[in-house]
Input
Amino acid sequence: MEYLPQILFAIVLVLGIGYFARNIQKLIRNIKLGRAVDASDNKSQRWANMARIALGQSKMVKRPIAGFLHVIVYVGFIIINIEVLEIIIDGLAGTHRIGLEVLPVSVYGFLIGAFEILALLVLVSVIVFLVRRNILKLKRFMANELKGWPKDDANIILYFEVVLMCLFLIMNATDVSFQQLNSGNIISQFIAPWFEGFSENTLHTIERTAWWLHIVGILVFLNYLYFSKHLHILLAFPNTYFGRVIPQGQFNNLDAVTKEVMLMMDPNADPFAAPAEGAEVEEDPEKFGASDVMDLNQIQLLGAYTCTECGRCTDECPANKTGKKLSPRKIMMDTRDRIEEVGKNIDANNGEFKDDGKQLLNDYTTPEELWACTTCNACVEACPVSINPLSIIMDMRRYLVMEQSAAPTELNNMMTNVENNGAPWPYNQMDRLNWAKEN
Amino acid sequence: MSEQLKVPTMAEYMAEGKQPEVLFWVGCAGSFDDRAKKITKAFVKLLHKAKVDFAVLGAEESCTGDPAKRAGNEFLFQMQAVTNIEVLNAYEVKTIVTACPHCFNTIKNEYPSLGGNYKVVHHTQFLKDLLNDGRITIEGGKFKGKRITFHDPCYLGRANNVYEAPRDLIKKLDAELIEMKSCKSRGLCCGAGGAQMFKDAEPGNKEVNILRTEQALETQPEIIAAGCPFCNTMMTDGVKNKEKEDNIAVMDIAELIANAQDL
Output
C-alpha cells in the first residue's frame, strides 16, 4: 500500500504521455498527406529565424500590449515547467521536494521564488487576456470564424492556465514544511494565512490534492493541445524553421507547368510522339493548384496546425478591413478543419481515405473569399509564427483558373489581353513605344 | 517642352553594336496608361539629365505575366516569362530598371528559376544610386517644406523590403515626410494588387483604395507620393472620391524629382 501513490502516479504519467504521443503520430501522418517540399536550403537562416521569431518572440512584440503579456505567459510557462521535473521525480520516487535534498536551501528557494513570481504574473496576464476576449471584446476576437468552438477553445486554455497557476501557489502555501523554511515562498506566504486554523492534517490533504491536480492538470492540458489551437506552443518552432526564407513577393513557379511550357516552346518537340522505348510510363498528369488539403504542401499543413487563431493576419488584411468575406485566419482554420476531417476519415476506413464528396475548396473556403485577395502579403507579414495563408489562397486560385477555368470574367478578359497582345489591356504590342512620340 | 523625348531601343543599340548601361523596363502601365506615361516620361528625363546610357525594348517588351500569375494562371505567366527571358537574354541584358514594383518583383524574383538572371532595381533605388554617385542633384525648390506622405507599394515594401530609397529621395527635396499610421511593413495595400486592378471588388463595405486614401488624408498631406503606377491610379481615384484633387496631388517619386528640376 505504501507504494500505491507511486504506482498510481506512474500509470497516470504513462497514460498521459502515451495518449499524447499517439496523437502526435496522427498529426505527423496528417501533415504527410500533403505534398513533399524541399526545405533543406538555408539551414543557418532557418535556425536563426526559429531562434528569433519563435524563441525570441520578435514578431509577437510588434503589438506591444498583447506581445508583452504573451512574453510573460510564455516565459512563465517554460520556466515553471522546470518545477514539473521535480514533481515527476517526487511522484515516481515517493520523495517530497527532492530539490531540497540536492540543492542548497538558498538556491532552491531562489528557484521556487522565481516560479511563484512568474506564476502570479502569468495569472495576471491570463486574466487580462480573458478580459480582452470576453469583456472588452476586441474586434479580432469577435469575427465570424471564431463563433462556437474556437471561442470556447480560447477560453478553456485561459481557464486552464488560471487553474494550474492557482494550484501551484496553493500547493506551496499549504506545504507546512516549505512555509517554515521561509525561502522561496515569496508569493505563497501571503496565501498561507488564508489557511490558518486548518489542522496540519487538513493542510496536508489540501497540499496533496493541489499537487495531484496540478500534475494531472498538466497532463490533461498536454493532451488537450492536439484538439486545440494551443498546439502553437509546440509547432511554432518547426513552423518558423520551415517558414519562408525567400522574399515574400516571390511566388513559386510550378515545375509541372514549366515542363509543359518548355515543351510548347521547343520547336523540335513532338507532343504526339510515343514514349521512348524503356521510358517510364507516365503517371497521371499532376493536378495544377489545390482543391483539397492533399494538394497543399506539408509546410502549408503544418501552418494550419500551428495557427493559434490570434487574427493578426485578418486584422491587417485589406480585403477584410473593407468588409469582404476573406479572412486569412479562416483560410488556416478551414485547412486544419479539413485535414482533421480527412484524418478521421482515414482512421475510420482502416488507413485508406474514402472519398467523402467534399474538399477544401467550396465546402470550406469559397471562391468569393479567394478572389478578394490582393496578394499584398500583409497577412504573411503579420503572422507571429511565419504562417503563409497567401500561398494557400494562390494554390486554390491556380486550381480555379487552370483546372476549372473559373476565373471572374474580367480576369479572363485581362488574361486574354495578356495572351494576345502582351498587356492586360486591349492595346497593340506594336504601340508600346508610342508614349515616346507623344508630348 | 514640346521637343520629343529621345528613347533609344535595344534593337538600335544592337544595330550599332553597343550595349547600354541599363535596360529601362517600361511595363504595361508605363506604356499605355495615360497617367503612368507621365511617370515614364519624367523618369526618362531624369535618365537623360544624369547622362545614363539606357534603352527600352519598345515593341519587343511584353507583359511580365504578373497579373496572370497572381490571378492563378501559371501557364500564361510562364509563357510570358519564357518569351521575355528569350528576348532579354538575346540582348544580353545585365541590369534592368523599372518604375513598376510588379514588374520589378516578377523579373527579380520569379524569372531566375526560368532562366532569366538580371540585376533588377526599382527606379527609386536607381535614382538614389545616381544621387549617391553625384550623377544627379536633387534640390528642394518648389517642394521645400511641403507635407508629403509616402504610400508603400506592397511589391516594393513588404515583398522586397525596399522602404528607404523612396523616403531618402523625398527627404532630399527638403520636404516634410509624414508617415501614415500604417506604413512600411504594415502599410495598407492600395487595392490593386493580385490582379484586383482588372476586376471589380467582392462585396464589402468599402473600397480598399478609399480606406487607404483616408489613411493618407489623416496626415494632412499636400502630396501623396507613390512608387507604383497602379498605386498611383488607386490613390488618385481615392483623392477624387474625397473631392480633394484640387488640394492634394498624387505623384510618383520620379515626377517629384523631375518637377523639382523643372524637367
About this structure: Chain A touches chain B through 70 residues (CB under 8 Å).
